[in-house]
Write a structure and sequence with these properties.
The protein has two domains: 126 residues, Creatine Amidinohydrolase, Chain A, domain 1; 213 residues, Creatine Amidinohydrolase (Alpha-Beta Complex). Helix 8 crosses helix 9 and helix 10 runs antiparallel to helix 11. The longest helix is centred in the middle third of the chain and has 21 residues. It has 362 residues and is of the alpha+beta class. Helix content is 33%, strand content 23%. Strand 2 and strand 3 form a beta hairpin.
Length: 362
């Protein structure tokens, strides 16, 4: 059987290079996106133990063939008991060993189980370690995101003819899911947002049974998963000629997004990039209606570092893939959001989406 291409061994080297700084001898990886990033294993049941000299992946018998296809560079152990019990039974963790774990994702109950099964090991939460390494994408990862984005772009073009007065938001969402799967997506990136009219004021307005009305704005926020990697795009369209206020809000949002895209590059503070868009919206008179951060990282998770926010302390790096998505949301009236996925470069960023951004009137 042919193996799928393995993730770069450089990812493991980078994590091992952090051991001295972290004060640990090993890293126990239990969060599935992190395990997939480091090993290539996409199954839902697995754990990885990375030491200075070995990399061992533990899973159960359901994934024997899958692990053989996906995993290279790791020893694969098929467990007859629970994953942690198998690690204990086989003596993979020595007494007194200092073991890091995913500090952002392990629950207290799971931590309690670790302490119970391995009473002589020293477990240390280490947040933002794998996250920081994974935030800088290699060319293979960017290509997968690019393919996910291309699927989402194509579906947007196809569904425009379906958005009409009297059509339910839920029907549009169903068509989006169906068409993305037909084009090769393995899943939706998240629950599709279709928010029309007053519901456009809900930044995360899930598609409802509401029927789209004439002269309403419709916000569509959707994406897909391709070989584990996500796309995430938002466009707002008008069903019939928009009212003057809608056109003004749209222009303000588009200007904010365009200026942020133009400014985004390596070395820029995330908070400063957020401020570029927020300043435009403030100048337009809508500052209090921009109620979320400008964007977020994108990869094996739909939301991952770096966060593009006034609260963020992150600095953008070449290879980050982030969303840029300003929005204006006016309760009782509606809203506008425009979002693209971009790759941060040394002097500028590359916009992956190709869908038009001038206001489309249907």
């Amino acid at each position: 059987m042919k193996r799928s291409s393995s993730p770069s061994a450089g990812r493991i080297r980078k994590l091992r290079s952090e051991f001295n700084r972290l004060g640990v001898d090993a890293f126990l990886v239990t969060f599935q996106p992190h395990l997939r990033y480091l090993s290539g294993f996409s199954g839902s049941s697995g754990a990885g133990l990375l030491t200075r000299n070995s990399a061992v992946l533990f899973t159960d018998g359901r994934y024997t063939e899958q692990a053989e296809l996906e995993v290279t560079g790791w020893r694969v152990v098929i467990c007859r008991d629970g994953l942690l019990d198998e690690i204990s039974r086989r003596g993979f963790l020595a007494h007194g060993e200092r073991v890091a774990f995913d500090g952002n994702t392990l629950t207290y109950a799971q931590y309690h189980t670790l302490r119970k099964i391995f009473p002589k090991a020293s477990f240390r939460p280490r947040a933002e370690t794998i996250e920081k390494i994974a935030a800088v994408k290699d060319e293979g990862e960017i290509e997968k995101i690019r393919k996910a984005v291309a699927i989402t772009d194509r579906v947007f073009g196809e569904i425009l003819e379906l958005i009409k007065p009297g059509v339910r938001e839920m029907d549009i969402a169903a068509e989006i899911s169906y068409r993305q799967r037909k084009l090769g997506a393995e899943a939706d990136a998240f629950e599709t947002i279709v928010a029309s009219g007053e519901r456009g004021a809900l930044p995360h307005g899930r598609a409802s049974m509401k029927k789209i009305g004439r002269r309403e704005l419709v916000t569509l926020d959707f994406g897909c998963v391709y070989e584990g990697y996500h796309s995430d795009m938002t466009r707002t369209v008008s069903v019939g000629r928009p009212v003057p206020e809608a056109a003004k809000i749209y222009r303000t949002t588009l200007d904010a997004q365009s200026r942020a895209i133009e400014a985004a590059k390596q070395g820029m503070r995330s908070a400063d990039l957020d401020a570029v868009a927020r300043t435009c919206i403030r100048t337009g008179g809508y500052e209090k209606y921009f109620r979320h951060s400008l964007g977020h990282g994108l990869g094996l998770q739909i939301h991952e570092p770096p966060r593009i926010s006034v609260m963020s302390t992150a600095t953008l790096e070449s290879g980050n893939v982030v969303t840029i998505e300003p929005g204006i949301y006016i309760p009782g009236w509606g809203g506008v959001r425009i979002e693209d996925d971009v790759v941060i470069g040394k002097a500028h960023c590359e916009v992956l989406n190709r869908s038009p951004k001038e206001l489309i009137v249907l």
